[in-house]
Amino acid sequence: MAALLMAYSMAFSRGRRKVPGAVAEGAELLAELELWRLRVFLGEDRAVRYGPLKALAYLVLRVPVGLLGGVILLLLAYGAAAAVRLAVGWWITGDHLDGIPPTWWIVLYTAVAGVVLLFLAVQGLVGVAAMERSVARRCLGPSPLEEYERRIAQLSVTRAQVVDAVDDERRRIERDLHDGVQQRLVALGMLIGRARRAGDGERAAELLRQAHEESQRALADLREVTWRVYPAALDGEGLRAALETVAERSALPVAIDFDVPGRPPHAVETAAYFVVCEAVTNAAKHSGAASVRVAVAGSATMIGVRIEDDGGGGADPGGGGLAGLARRVAALDGTFTVDSPRGGPTVITAELPCG
C-alpha cells in the first residue's frame, strides 16, 4: 500500500515535491503509529521532524524490513509448532515422526539443531529491530546538515554560557573580597594606626592584640575565598576528598555516597564539585534544611550527581547560583535539573559525560 501511495503521489505531484492531501494525512498517521510502536516496543524515543514525502519514503523502506521480520516470526512459530508436534509424537501418542524412535542421540541431535536455529532466529529479530531504528532515524529524523546546524547552535549557546559563568564567578570573587577580606584589612589598618597614635603603652598593647585577632580573621576569610575559588584537594586527592571537605565545612550534616570507579576527567571533577558545593551552600543558607544527602555515581562514560535536602523547597532554577551551575554543566554537554516543590524536598541532579 505504501509503495502504491508513493507511486500515486509521484504521478500527481508534477515535480513540485507535493503530496495530495489525503495521501499526506494517511502517510503521517501511519508514520505516527510506527513511531508509537518503536517507542513502546523498542524504546526509540527522540524528537523527529518530517513531512509527507519523508513519511511516505519511510513507509516504502519499511516494507522489506517488515516482510523480513514477518518471515522470521513465521519461522519461529513453525519451529515451535514442529517442536511441540515432535515431543507429543515421541512421548505421548507414540506416533514417531518419519518412524524414527526417540533414542538419546536422536533427541540430542534434534535439541542442538533446535537451539542453533532458535539462536539464529533471535539474532535475526535483533537485526530487524536495529534496521527499524536505522530506517526511522534516516527517514524521519533530521538530515546530517540539520544535525550539524543544531550542534553548531548548541555549541554557540554553551560557549556564551561559559563566558557568562566565568563573568559571574569573577563578580562573586570580587564581591567576596570586597565584603569580607577588604573590610577585615581596613579594620586591621585602623587598629594599627590607633595603636601607633596611642600614648599609653597598655592601650597600645590592647589595640595590637585586637589587630592580631583581626589579622587572623582576615586570613581565615582569605582562606575561605581561596577554597571557594578552587580547592587544592581536588587536584591532589580527587573529587571524593574535596566533597568530604565540603561536608566538614558545611553548617548542615552532609551524608556522601560516592561510587565512581577511577578518576574522571579534570573538567568533570571540577563541575561535579561546584554543583555539590553550591547546592550544599544554598541548602544551608536558604532552605531551612536539617540535613543534606549527596550521591555521586558513575562509570567510565558518565558521572551522575544528586543532592537532596529536606528543606522547605521553592528553589529558583533561574537564580544566580543555580543558573551558573546549569551553564557550567551545559558547557560539558551535560544535563542539569532542579526539582524543588513548595514544602520540599529539593533535589538537584547533574549528568556529566566523561567522553
Helix fraction bin: 55-70%
Number of E strands: 5
Shape call: elongated
What integer is the average pLDDT? 79
**H and E string:** HHHHHHHHEHEEHEE
Count, helices: 10
Q: What class, by secondary structure content?
A: alpha+beta
**Stretches where pLDDT falls below 50 for ≥5 residues?**
none
Query: Biggest sheet: strands side by side, in what order?
Result: 1-2-3-5-4
Structure commentary:
The protein is α+β, with helices and mostly antiparallel strands and 355 residues long. It is built from ten helices and five strands. It has helices spanning 2-13, 21-42, 52-93, 104-140, 144-197, 201-229, 232-236, 239-249, 266-287, 320-330, and strands at residues 254-259, 292-298, 302-309, 335-339, 346-353. A five-stranded mixed sheet has the order 1-2-3-5-4, with helices on one face. Helix 9 (266-287) links the parallel strand 1 (254-259) and strand 2 (292-298). The longest helix is centred in the middle third of the chain and has 54 residues, at 144-197. It is elongated, with a radius of gyration of 34 Å. The two termini are 45 Å apart. The model has no long low-confidence stretch (mean pLDDT 79).
